[in-house]
Every structure is written in structure tokens, then in C-alpha cells.
Specification:
mainly alpha, 7 helices, single chain
């Protein structure tokens, strides 16, 4: 990995510091920005400092207590996922794929007001494209 600084932690206090109280000290850096900008743009996921703060302020209203507590939204998607793993069914189920599709549907529904239906149609165009971008980005990161 060359001279890249990497931090692994599972300590809740470290995670709290990295994600909230000391966020500015743990930026993503220019290389991460360059690698992901084409896919994610100059938003909250790819920027640091003032630019990150401005992007965060734009989405802050999405995370007010009443909105985050919208359990009906989450329950709709949980029910769809559970229906795909009915007891007594002898099919093999890939939990990692189910969790990916669930997360994708919940996130899109929460942030954009509509899911992408990837739990219903595992080969949804959006889900397939999203997976492909992640695969390509992982390859790029490994080969740099």
C-alpha cells in the first residue's frame, strides 16, 4: 500500500471521533477524491473541509428525528426481504446480496423518495450499474 495511511478500528469511541467529533482530522484525501469524483461528484462522500461541510448542510434536513424515525419506510423493505427467505423453502439464499439490495432500496427510498426495486428485480438496471461501479473502483484502488 506504499505510504498510504490506513486506520482499522472497531472501538466505538474511535469511530465516534472519526465520524463526528474529530471528523476534520480524518479526511478522505485528494487521491480518494480523484478516484471517486467521476462516480460520486464533489459531494459529501468525496470531499473534505469546507466543501464537505457545505455538502453536509444540504442533506442535513433529511436526517431530522422525525424523518430518521420513519419506521414504515424501513418496515416496507424489511417485509420484502423477509418474503425472499421463507421458512421451509429449500433454495439457497445469498444473504450478502439480499442485504445489498435491501440497503440500496432503503437508501434510495429514504434519500430520493422512491426505492429502485432491487429486492423485487435482482437484475435492476440501477443495482447492476451500482455494483459495476463499485467493482471497477475496487479494481482501480487495488492497482494504483
Amino acid at each position: 500500500m506504499g505510504n498510504i495511511r490506513v486506520i482499522f478500528t472497531a472501538d466505538p469511541e474511535n469511530i465516534k471521533a472519526i465520524l463526528t467529533t474529530q471528523f476534520a482530522e480524518y479526511g478522505k484525501g485528494e487521491q480518494f477524491h480523484r478516484e471517486w469524483e467521476q462516480f460520486l461528484g464533489d459531494g459529501i462522500f468525496t470531499t473534505d473541509g469546507a466543501q464537505w461541510h457545505d455538502a453536509r448542510q444540504l442533506i442535513r434536513p433529511m436526517f431530522v428525528r422525525g424523518r430518521v424515525g420513519d419506521l414504515d419506510l424501513f418496515e416496507r423493505h424489511v417485509r420484502k426481504m423477509i418474503a425472499l427467505v421463507e421458512p421451509g423453502d429449500s433454495r439457497m439464499v445469498r444473504i450478502d446480496e439480499l442485504v445489498f439490495h435491501f440497503s440500496l432500496d432503503v437508501a434510495m427510498d429514504f434519500l430520493l423518495g422512491a426505492g429502485v426495486g432491487s429486492l423485487e428485480v435482482h437484475t435492476s438496471e440501477f443495482g447492476t450499474a451500482f455494483n459495476e461501479v463499485q467493482r471497477v473502483q475496487a479494481l482501480k484502488a487495488r492497482t494504483r
